[in-house]
Amino acid sequence: MTALDRVAILGTGQIGTMVGMALRAAPEHGVMEVAVWDRDQAAMDACQQRAGSDRLLDEPRGALESDVIILATPVAQIVELIQELGPRLGPGQLLLDTGSSKQVVVRAMRQFVPETAGAVGGHPLCGRSELGPWAADPSLLQGATFVLCPVRADSPSLRTARRLVEMLGSVALELDADEHDRLLARSSHLPHLVAAAIAEMSGEVPTRALFSSGLRGAVRLARSDPAMVASFVCANLDEVLAASRDLCLQLDRLLAAAASGEEHLVAELERARLRALQVGVN
Amino acid sequence: MTALDRVAILGTGQIGTMVGMALRAAPEHGVMEVAVWDRDQAAMDACQQRAGSDRLLDEPRGALESDVIILATPVAQIVELIQELGPRLGPGQLLLDTGSSKQVVVRAMRQFVPETAGAVGGHPLCGRSELGPWAADPSLLQGATFVLCPVRADSPSLRTARRLVEMLGSVALELDADEHDRLLARSSHLPHLVAAAIAEMSGEVPTRALFSSGLRGAVRLARSDPAMVASFVCANLDEVLAASRDLCLQLDRLLAAAASGEEHLVAELERARLRALQVGVN
Predict the structure, then answer these.
(1) Domain at B180-279, CATH from 1.10.3660.10, 1.10.560.10, 1.20.1600.10, 2.60.40.1190
(2) Residues A140, A143, A148: CA angle, nearest 5 degrees
(3) Which residues of B fall within a CB distance of 8 Å from A220?
(4) Would you say residue A37 has pLDDT above 90?
(5) Per-domain residue ranges for chain B?
(6) Would you say B180 and B149 are in contact if contact means Cβ atoms under 8 Å apart?
(7) B242 in reach of chain A (CB within 8 A)
(8) Closest residue by Cα to residue A21 from A157, A143, A133, A172
(9) Residue B238 and which of A3, A75, B188, B201 are 20 to 30 A apart at CA?
(10) A276: which chain B residues are within 8 Å (Cβ-Cβ)?
């Protein structure tokens, strides 16, 4: 079984820093060293300040000395890092990522990580719309769902990944990468674009006085990091396109109900309200 | 000038109760009596408990003894009440409503309220997604925008309505009804339908474990009262249809940018992010 003595985190934005903080906060788990790297020196310094990481890496390859390498950059860079580091991974090492799109990641892992090493696609469902290491709040990992997408069947690396997820206080949920991407397109990726579209349309409203609390809620996701959102949307474009078509059909259905009589729209909205209540309250 | 001694509130849901509480909480404004009516006896009782209203009315026509009549029901009932009460209004009386769609209301006021009486379309931009008199929080009126839509040019009733809005602690914003409806379709009515559509799509997601905080924010408006939402959507259907078409075009534009390269989507999202930051934080 893979040791968890030394962990490297590449990408020290909100998620990478949060993971580093959670690992350092629980020394009883036995992680001896947390090494970090980011192409942005300021983000790396901030992560070290917050997580108390033991080592700053000069370059991503420095991570190859660690037992577990966690890729927490935007998805496009995750794929690049898999290409760079994957072929150099040795037996017993584990590569895990935290990106929001999983098919491209798992495909790259399958291609570039040798079978002797381990690789698992990961996606912690937590985080805030604020950006960077200073927005990291490790308590958000507590009880959060951490999706794990197998790269190869019956891989022992899944067990290691599960141990790591437990150490973070999160709850592992195993899901195939294509199923993850189909569902996340609907529950997350498209909602980010919708919030951006509504925000863009709010530009027609000539005065702040007409901005309601409802609108503020509707555009909240549009305050997310553009690079991060673009990265997971572009890495999951087919599913996001399909979800967008579904959304516009749903809107057409609601508007057709409205046109055929208020009571028909009420019935549709009653059903949607029950769904919304199931989704829960922030 | 219209006296403000006696105010009647028809419809004691969240907004009607909130208005009643705000009027009773500030006796220095000189409102001597707040009478209330709702077709739901329990809602009327709850409003009386919370606002300490002086009189429960047996029927809407009881409001004709008041100086100011505030219609705070869903929009379709507002129009019915204008038809019933409007022709019976006398000199110096003011009819004001709180509905979210204003063209149908202002049109009905123009048709049914005699020129000797006064009528103004109103829309306070505040409230929560929770329903009913127990969700009323008069502090939400403090500093909130209260749109006033003139029914007739140079009407003295606008001055009375402005005084009432000031008494509530809100900020009056004069706007033509058609402009109000065009803007609100984009900033509020369509976002309610979008939240419902996303909530409906979340039904495909098989486990609560995949519901993120982003999704919870995106479906928040779908927890609103279906009757209320259906009422203002159906009363503003042309503008909501136009806004829906705009939204789907915006989504297509974002997806086309994504297809042409991640950096193009980043640029679009950067712009939307600035808009979202202008809209502000809840």
Answers:
(1) 1.10.3660.10
(2) 100
(3) 214, 217, 276, 281-282
(4) yes
(5) 6-175, 180-279
(6) yes
(7) no
(8) A133
(9) B201
(10) 195-196, 199, 202, 219-220, 222-223
**Token pair in block for residue A128:** 């805030």
Q: Which residue has the tokens 């959102």?
A: A229
Of the pLDDT bands very low, low, confident and very high (cuts 50, 70, 90), residue A280 is confident
> Which A positions 196-235 lie with beta carbon below 8 A of chain B?
196-224, 226-227, 229-231, 233-234
Cα–Cα distance for residue pair A51/A187, rounded to 1 Å: 30
Q: How many Cβ atoms sit within 10 Å of the Cβ of residue A44? A: 22
What are the angstrom distances between the C-alpha of B178 and each of A98, A138, A182, B100, B235?
A: 48, 49, 41, 12, 12
Pairs of CB atoms within 8 A across A/B:
302
A130 interface with B at CB cutoff 8 Å: no
Q: Do domains A6-175 and A180-279 have the same CATH topology?
A: no
CA-atom Rg of chain B in angstroms: 21
Answer yes or no: do A255 and B244 touch at CB < 8 A.
yes
In DSSP terms, which residues pair with B174 in a beta bridge? B148
What is the model's pTM? 0.85
pLDDT of A182 strictly over 90: yes
- What ipTM does this complex have? 0.85
Residue A26 has pLDDT above 80, yes or no: no
For residues B122 and A225, what is the distance between their CA atoms, to the nearest angstrom?
A: 38
- pLDDT of A235 strictly over 70: yes
In this structure, which topology does domain B6-175 adopt according to CATH?
Rossmann fold (3.40.50)
Can you give the pLDDT at residue A1?
60
The tens digit of pLDDT for each residue in A112-130 reads 999 999 999 999 998 877 7
Chain B interface includes A143 (CB < 8 A): no
The reported pLDDT for the residue numbered A258 is 97
Contacts of B78 in chain A (CB under 8 A): none
The dihedral through the CA atoms of B136, B137, B142, B145 has a sign that is negative
Which residues does chain B have within 8 Å of residue A100's beta carbon, measured at their own beta carbons? none
pLDDT of amino acid B25: 86
Residue with tokens 């798992």: A106
Beta bridge partners of B145: B171
**Sheet architecture: strand order including A145-150:** A55-56, A33-37, A6-10, A68-71, A94-97, A118-124, A145-150, A171-174
Residue A31 has pLDDT above 90, yes or no: no
| CA distances (Å), origin B208, targets A187, A240, B199 | 11, 20, 13
Contact across the interface for A193 and B240, Cβ inside 8 Å: no
**Band of pLDDT at residue A282, cut at 50, 70 and 90:** low
- Grouped pLDDT means (10 residues each) for chain B, 282 residues: 87 96 83 93 94 92 97 95 97 95 97 94 88 92 96 88 95 96 94 96 85 87 91 94 97 97 97 92 63
